[in-house]
Task: inverse folding
C-alpha cells in the first residue's frame, strides 16, 4: 500500500483524506478528463473501499467529473475537522443524554432522602476553591452559627464565591453533627460490617466488664437525653447504629406522620419476637404495602405472619397470640365439609416449623424493616437500653455501645465535622482537555446536611453541578412512607419544629411525606437551577 499517496491505514482522520481526494478529482476534471480517472490513477487504491460498498450509503455525497459518489465515512463521528460536528456529547443532537428521571418542568427541589450517606462527590465545571483553607475566624463563625441555629440566606448566585466569607462560614456550619460515643482512634460509623475495619484497634474495655458497664451507663443517659429532645421537638431526628441494625427516630410531623416514629432495619425473627414479648406493637410497612397492592390476599406474607385490618380499615398490629389461635382452628373448614377423616392434617409442630422458616427467610432483607409509632417508641427506648443484643459480645466491636448521630447537641455528645476535600482533574473531550472540579464529603451524611450543602452549591456553582451519593445500604428503606390511612400533616408542624435548629427550607422538605420507598438517591444533578435525580 506504499503506492497510495497520502493513505492512512489507521483511518483516524477519514474526512481529511476524502477532502484531498475530492480536491484532486476536481482538478483532474478541470483539465478535461471528462470523468474521474481515480480507478486508474496511483491514488485510486481508495476505490477498493467504494467497490466493496454494499449498495447506496447514507451520508454526504461528492461529485467528480459529473459522477455522483457517496462518502463511505459519512457516519463516522470522529471527524474533528468538520466545524458542524465540533460539539460535546452533552449538547450533540446525535448523542442523546439518558434521562435520570422524568421530571416536570421547573423542578427546583428534590425529594427528601432519609438514608445515611457515607460519601458525597460533587463535580462541577466551576472550581470549589471557596471550600478550601477556611480562615480561623470563618471556622469559628461557622461553629457558632451552628450552635445558635443561625440561618444563612445566600444570594441566588455568587460571582466570586472564594471571597464570600458568608458562604465559607455557612459551609463550615453545614458540616457539623453530634455523636456519642466518640473515640478518636475508632471510626464508629458505619457499624454494620465494620469488623475488619476495627480489627486490631485498641479496645481496653473488651475484657473489662466494669468499664463496659460504665460505657453503657453513659450511653443510656445520652440516648434518653436525645429521646427527650425529640419528644420536645427540639431535635428533629436521630440515628442509633448498632453492629446488627440501625434505628431512625423522627419527631412528630416529619415525613408526614402525626406522631413520633421509629424505623428499624434490618431486623431478624429473634429481634421481632423479643419486641413482641416486651409488648412493643409494630408493623411491617413494606409487607402491608404489598398486601394493599394485592387486596385479594392470594399472595402470602414473606414473613409468615398473618396481616389483618382493624375496624377502621387500618393494618392491625402484629400479635403473636393470633398466630397461636390460627394454629388451633385453622382446619375447622374440613369438618364443615365432612372430610376431616379423609384428609391427613399436618401436626402443630410442622405448622410452626413452616412458619418459622418463612419468618427466617425475611431476615436481613429490606422487607424486614419495622415501624414503631407513638407511645410504643418510648417502650422501644427502654427495650434498647436493656437489650443485650445491641452490643456485640465478641469480636472487634465487643462491649462497644451503639453510635448515636444527631443534628442537634445532646447530653454527652461530641461535636464532629464531616471531612471535605476538593480536587481538580483534566478530562479529555473532543476539542482537547477541560478542567473538572470535585468536592468530596465523607462521614455520616444525614438528610439535613445533604440539603444544606445543595443550597450552598446552588449559589456558589451558579446552578450547575452533579452529585454522586453513596448510601449506607441498610438505611435505604428509611424512605418508606410511615403514614397510615387517615393521617395527614398538621398545618402547625413547621411552627412546632421551628426551634429544632434546622434551616427553614430544609425543615420544610423533611416535613413532606417520604416518596422514595425502599430506594435512595444515587445521583443528583442540577442544571440551570433545575434538579434531576436517579434512585
Result:
Amino acid at each position: 500500500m506504499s503506492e497510495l499517496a497520502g493513505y492512512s491505514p489507521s483511518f483516524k482522520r477519514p474526512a481529511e483524506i476524502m477532502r484531498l481526494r475530492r480536491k484532486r478529482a476536481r482538478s483532474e476534471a478541470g483539465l478535461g478528463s471528462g470523468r474521474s480517472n481515480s480507478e486508474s490513477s496511483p491514488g485510486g487504491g481508495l476505490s477498493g473501499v467504494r467497490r466493496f460498498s454494499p449498495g447506496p450509503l447514507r451520508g454526504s455525497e461528492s461529485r467528480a467529473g459529473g459522477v455522483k459518489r457517496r462518502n463511505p465515512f459519512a457516519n463516522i463521528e470522529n471527524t474533528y475537522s468538520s466545524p458542524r460536528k465540533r460539539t460535546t456529547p452533552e449538547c450533540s443532537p446525535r448523542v442523546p443524554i439518558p434521562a435520570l428521571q422524568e421530571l416536570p418542568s421547573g423542578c427546583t427541589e428534590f425529594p427528601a432522602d432519609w438514608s445515611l450517606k457515607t460519601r458525597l462527590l460533587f463535580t462541577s465545571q466551576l472550581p470549589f476553591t471557596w471550600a478550601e483553607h477556611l480562615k480561623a475566624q470563618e471556622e469559628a463563625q461557622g461553629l457558632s452559627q451552628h450552635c445558635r441555629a443561625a440561618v444563612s440566606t445566600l444570594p441566588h448566585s455568587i460571582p466570586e464565591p472564594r471571597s464570600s466569607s458568608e458562604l465559607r462560614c455557612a459551609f463550615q456550619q453545614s458540616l457539623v453533627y453530634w455523636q456519642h460515643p466518640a473515640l478518636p482512634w475508632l471510626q464508629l460509623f458505619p457499624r454494620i460490617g465494620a469488623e475488619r475495619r476495627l480489627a486490631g484497634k485498641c479496645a481496653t474495655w473488651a475484657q473489662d466488664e466494669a468499664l463496659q458497664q460504665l460505657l453503657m451507663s453513659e450511653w443510656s443517659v445520652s440516648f434518653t437525653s436525645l429521646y427527650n429532645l425529640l419528644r420536645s421537638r427540639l431535635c428533629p431526628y436521630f440515628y442509633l447504629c448498632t453492629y446488627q441494625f440501625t434505628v431512625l427516630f423522627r419527631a412528630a410531623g416529619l415525613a408526614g406522620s402525626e406522631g413520633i416514629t421509629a424505623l428499624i432495619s434490618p431486623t431478624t425473627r429473634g429481634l421481632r419476637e423479643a419486641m413482641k414479648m416486651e409488648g412493643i406493637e409494630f408493623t411491617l410497612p413494606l409487607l402491608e404495602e404489598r398486601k394493599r397492592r394485592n387486596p385479594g390476599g392470594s399472595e402470602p406474607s414473606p414473613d409468615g405472619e398473618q396481616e389483618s385490618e382493624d375496624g377502621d380499615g387500618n393494618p392491625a398490629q402484629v400479635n403473636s397470640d393470633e398466630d397461636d389461635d390460627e394454629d388451633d382452628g385453622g382446619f375447622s373448614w374440613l369438618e364443615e365439609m365432612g372430610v376431616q377423616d379423609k384428609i391427613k392434617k399436618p401436626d402443630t409442630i410442622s405448622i410452626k416449623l413452616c412458619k418459622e422458616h418463612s419468618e427466617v427467610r425475611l431476615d436481613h432483607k429490606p422487607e424486614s424493616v419495622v415501624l414503631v409509632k407513638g407511645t410504643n417508641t418510648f417502650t422501644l427506648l427502654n427495650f434498647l437500653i436493656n437489650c443485650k443484643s445491641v452490643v456485640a459480645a465478641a469480636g472487634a466491636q465487643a462491649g462497644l455501645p451503639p453510635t448515636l448521630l444527631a443534628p442537634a447537641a445532646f447530653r454527652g455528645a461530641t461535636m464532629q465535622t464531616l471531612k471535605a476535600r476538593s480536587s481538580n482533574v483534566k478530562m479529555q473531550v473532543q476539542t482537547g482537555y477541560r478542567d473538572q472540579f470535585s468536592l468530596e464529603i465523607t462521614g455520616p451524611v444525614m438528610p439535613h446536611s445533604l440539603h444544606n450543602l445543595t443550597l450552598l452549591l446552588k449559589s456558589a456553582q451558579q446552578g450547575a453541578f452533579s452529585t454522586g451519593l453513596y448510601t449506607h445500604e441498610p438505611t435505604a428503606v428509611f424512605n418508606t412512607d410511615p403514614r397510615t390511612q387517615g393521617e395527614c400533616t398538621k398545618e402547625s408542624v413547621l411552627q412546632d419544629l421551628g426551634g429544632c435548629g434546622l434551616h427553614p427550607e430544609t425543615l420544610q422538605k423533611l416535613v413532606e411525606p417520604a416518596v422514595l420507598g425502599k430506594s435512595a438517591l444515587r445521583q443528583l444533578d442540577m442544571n440551570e437551577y433545575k434538579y434531576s435525580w436517579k434512585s
